[in-house]
Every structure is written in structure tokens, then in C-alpha cells.
Amino acid sequence: MRTHILPSIILTALMLVLCTVIYSVILWGVAQAAPNQGKGFVVEQNGKTWYANVGQTFDDDRYFWSRPSAVGYNAAGSAGSNKGPGNADYLAQVQARIDTFLVHHPGIGKSQIPSDLVTASGSGLDPHISPQGARVQVARVARVRNLPETQVRELVEQHVEGPWFGLFGPSRVNVLKLNLALDNLVSH
Q1: What are the CA-CA distances from residue 27 to residues 34, 113, 117, 125, 172 (Å)?
Q2: Which residues on adjacent β-strands are paired with residue 11?
Q3: pLDDT of 73-98, one tens digit each?
């Protein structure tokens, strides 16, 4: 019995040090090399502060809508819905989002709605939508703000971010940055 207890205690102590101390120091070191030392990307405008790397609630017709969040954009509780694509509750929720979108976007067909505008991301905090998701909203935003659609469309195109390093991931649009630029456009 003694031959098993001592190695177990030693292994537990080593894993405790490895998983709590060494791992934390490595992550902290990597964060120090990252932009903004891992503290997030802060955007300040008109005396307000936002984090550009965390999804925000935008559901007013004057703004480009965000991707839905399964956690209400609560960064303390990042999670997906954990509901499968055949779950009746999930399908009803997606259908309600589609119906809402169609009411606010007359002339758009169901097949023209990008999936990222009616489904939540895996984290529930995705700050981006697809360029198609932004483009499909241009007419509504332009109409509500009394702006030419071409001007709003140009603003969207200016905010399309390509894949990381030109290789990783799809093109995307940061909804917060786009909406802040939209407010600046209108206020000038």
C-alpha cells in the first residue's frame, strides 16, 4: 500500500504545480506578447467604453444587428446553447429570429438571410458577423437613418476584415466598430 500512496502524493503535487502555477505563468507570458497584453481591445467614443472583442447587443433598427447570443452577451458566462439542430426549442427560437428579421427587412427572402444572423455562436460572445450579414442589413439602416444606401454600403465594405494573415478564418465585420463608424458618419 505504501508503494502506491507515496507516488500518488508526488504525482498529485507535481500536477498541482504544473496545472496551476506553470500553466498560468505560460498563459500570462503569451498574453504579454499579444496586442494590448491580453486585456481586450478597448474602444472609447463619446465618453463611453466598449470592448471590441466581445459581442454587444445591437437590436435597434438604426444599427447593424449583432449575431444572437445564447448567454445574453454576458462575458462572465460564455457558452453556446448546447441544443442540437433537431431540438424543437432551438428550431422555434431560430424561426422566431427569422420571422423578426423578415418583418424588419421587407423585400428580403428567407433564403437571403445569412445563418449567422439567426444562430448564436459557440461562445455566445462573437463580436463579428459575416460581410453578407452586414450587407443584407444596409437597406434597413439606410432607410431608418435617411442615408443613401451607397454611402452605408461603402461604410460596410470599409469595415470588412479579411482572414487572419490572409489564411485563417472567413472574412468578417466587427459590428461594434461598424456601428460606431455609422454614428460618426451621421454626427458629421
Answers
A1: 11, 39, 33, 21, 27
A2: none
A3: 777 777 777 777 888 988 998 999 99
Tell me which residue has cell 447587443: 57
- Angle 78-82-85 from CA coordinates, rounded to 5°: 135
Amino acid at 11: L
Distance of CA 67 to the CA centre of its chain: 6
Evaluate if pTM is beyond 0.70. Answer: yes
161: its cell numbers: 476584415
Q: Cβ contacts of residue 37 below 8 Å, gap of 6+?
A: 31
Residue pair 174/134 in contact (Cβ under 8 Å)? The answer is: no
DSSP 36: G
Q: What is the number of other CB atoms lying within 10 angstroms of the CB of residue 103?
A: 8
Question: What SS3 class is residue 174?
Answer: strand
Write the burial class of residue 51 (CB in 10 Å: 0-12 exposed, 13-18 middle, 19+ buried): middle
Cross-strand bridge partners of residue 49: 44
